[in-house]
Amino acid sequence: MSEKNLDYYGRFRSVNVSFRVSPEEGKLLNSLVKISGMTKQDYITEALLSNQIIIQPTSRTYKAIKDELSAVISELKRIEAGRNVDVDLLDLLSRITSAIDSLKEA
Fold it and tell me: Are residues 43 and 95 in contact, defined by beta-carbon separation less than 8 angstroms?
């Protein structure tokens, strides 16, 4: 039998929650998880429970932010003169900016 999966407070996580998202939402979620430095499970739990998402300042986090920002920059360069900017791209850019700001404060 496998070990119990306990959270940070020593509580046993025995309830399984699953849901579907669109490919765009999945991509955005994966990007946000990467730049947070958290596991997807912890990120979603914190976000759903309206807790503040605290970015873990590690070299892995900085690399994820750099990679995501490079992807955003590439997409913005592809778009002519700021036309047809996807709302999801602007949302991701806003969240990356917030992540960078929170790292400055740490």
Answer: no
